[in-house]
Write a structure and sequence with these properties.
Layout: H1 5-11, E1 14-15, E2 18-19, H2 21-35
């Protein structure tokens, strides 16, 4: 995936119009996993 996905992931932290700290933490943890190269 391209590096442009990182800012997009950080946008998805809302529930009922409010920033949810659990989603913020999840996106922070997910970003490096998604950006790492895959084997094959």
């Amino acid at each position: 995936m391209e590096q442009t996905i990182e800012p997009e992931l950080r946008r998805w932290v809302y529930g009922s119009g409010k920033v949810l700290l659990g989603l913020v933490a999840r996106r922070e943890a997910e970003t490096p996993l998604i950006l790492q190269p895959t084997a094959g």
